[in-house]
Design brief:
- The chain has eight helices and seven strands.
- A seven-stranded parallel beta sheet has the order 3-2-1-4-5-6-7, with helices on both faces.
- Helix 1 crosses helix 8 and helix 3 runs parallel beside helix 4.
- The two termini are 33 Å apart.
- It binds NADPH dihydro-nicotinamide-adenine-dinucleotide phosphate (NDP).
- NADPH dihydro-nicotinamide-adenine-dinucleotide phosphate binds next to helix 1.
């Protein structure tokens, strides 16, 4: 918990409506942060907000498509104008659209780049200057993927976008380090969510040294570690949560 932010430091989590983002929101709420829940599915976000805050104090909900630059900027600036700058931002929202490269469609390439890499710019560009101007410590955590570290068959689009996220994260970390804002990346391997199709799991399982799929909560634990006040000297890093897969 960061004592320069009171009473509860707020952390925006994109893609909090399900999967890894939902687990991150639950974990950060349990750790005493005020999650700001982002996604597109309002019903799911409202259900989660009700669970986390009760009727008295539900977390705020922000709804926009992370690939829509204008919508993202307007919504985020209005939220911080009304409620103050976030302590932390977790850029988690993402999609995959797998296909062998010779068969890949323009739409599969464009949409994955627009959401997974474009989302980095569209969400962080409006937020970083206000974070710097607040002159307080801050945290940015991006969610990449093992696919972005090693390159994965059928995921040329996704590997490109997720490798881009790693490069962008490291570069932003250098720019923000002296401002006491850390910028790190968490790179999950195969995690049991809607994104990981059952047939993919069966195929990949033998390649995972831990011999099992990861849990969203195990990714959330790494994010929660990076959010801590005493993680202040960890920046420009990629933390893999992948059961030893490479
Ligand atoms: P899910 O498909 O379960 O959830 C994706 C989340 O992202 C949802 O909350 C969804 O919101 C949101 N989202 C997707 N597209 C958009 C968009 N255009 N605008 C706004 N929100 C959007 O995925 P995971 O939880 O598995 O993945 C979370 C992150 O982890 C992603 O970045 C993914 O690439 C990464 N990852 C996942 C791995 C895995 O094995 N599961 C492995 C490695 C990385 P909504 O439901 O409201 O549409």
């Amino acid at each position: 918990m960061n004592m320069e932010h009171s009473p509860s430091p707020s952390v925006l989590i994109t893609g909090a409506s399900r999967g890894i983002g939902e687990a991150i929101a639950r974990r950060l709420a349990a750790d005493g942060f005020l999650p700001v829940l982002h996604g597109r599915n309002r019903a799911r976000l409202e259900a989660l907000a009700g669970e986390l805050g009760g009727n008295a104090n539900p977390p705020r909900i922000l709804q926009f498509d992370v690939s829509n630059r204008d919508e993202a900027r307007k919504t985020l600036l209005a939220d911080i104008e009304a409620h103050g700058v976030y302590y932390g931002v977790v850029c988690n929202a993402g999609i995959a659209a797998d296909n062998a490269f010779p068969a890949m469609t323009d739409e599969e390439w464009d949409s994955v780049l627009a959401v997974d890499l474009g989302g980095f710019y569209n969400v962080l560009r409006p937020l970083v200057l206000p974070m710097v101007q607040a002159r307080r410590p801050g945290r940015v955590v991006t969610i990449s993927s093992l696919s972005g570290q090693v390159g994965n068959r059928g995921q040329v689009n996704y590997s490109a976008a997720k490798a881009g996220v790693i490069g962008a994260t490291k570069a932003l970390a250098v720019e923000l380090a002296k401002r006491r804002i850390t910028v790190n990346c968490v790179a999950p391997g195969l995690i049991g969510t809607d994104m990981a199709a059952p047939e993919v799991m069966t195929h990949i399982l033998p390649l995972i040294p831990a011999q099992r799929v990861g849990k969203p909560e195990e990714v959330a634990a790494a994010v929660a570690f990076l959010m801590r006040e005493d993680a202040a000297y960890i920046t420009r890093q990629v933390i893999a949560v992948n059961g030893g897969m490479s």
